[in-house]
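Re: the request from the purification team.
They wanted to know what the chain is likely to look like in 3D before they choose a buffer screen. I agreed to run a prediction and write the result into the notebook, where they can find it.
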Amino acid sequence: MDDASTTLRDFLQSRRARLRPSDVGLIGGGFRRVEGLRREEVASLAGVNVDYYARLEQGRLPRVSISVLDAVARALRLDAVERRHLLALAHPSAPARSPRPQRVRPAVDTLLASLDAQPAFVMGDRMDILAANWMARQVMGNWLDRPANQRNLARFIFLDPEARQVHRDWSVVAQEAVATLRSYGGEHPDDPTFAALVTELRESSPEFVEWWSAHDVRARSHGVKVYEHPQMGTITVHCEALEFPGDDHQRLCIYTAEPGTASHQALVLLASMRAHSDIAHTT
């Protein structure tokens, strides 16, 4: 995985490249060797010296004030997630000694089991799936039945052929996964387990290499997912991700479908299949 200064440089260059002078109220006349804003234009918009900004972009400044980073974020039209990513890259955290395994509390397992009509799972660091209920396994695929150390969503998306069958909009889901990993990497640059995961994906997936180089970042909070189920067909769900305070950034992800839709009916039928199976096993 790239070092922190290289990642900072590439991130800022990628944000410059996506803006045109007209996007920020500048006149874009004259020949340009590359698309996007020039360094001097970003420096002017941020109110800093050109040389100072160049050294920032090159990762040659030991410490940059929050006020300067905020000014650069405004100049580059960064959203809240991108701003947080910039701050994490410019102010890297202390090296991690050894990442400890994440475990789901027993009460959370009970909560998952109680959601018998909604697919639900707990996602931890690096997009590891720490726990999932029966409905999640039915909708997302049998890969969730694998041992805990093999349940990584990003690895499934890019390395398992089944993912392209399960996810109707695979390329969208895959790019979102890359952006989520980018966000995590900015905050945990010295996580050896994460570095190994990124190396594995870069060596095995050309698509991952392409999208990783885009330096897009994303927060996991909510969205729409479309799955293909072998019996139920297309299932469209809304995802809400709720973070557990004090539990190492674990997130409870719950899928719901709009009442009255075919997707909602599919979830109802899946839940009834589970109920009938449970009754059969108790009689």
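For the purification team: Strands lie at 120-123, 129-132, 222-229, 233-243, 251-256.
Please add any questions underneath this entry.
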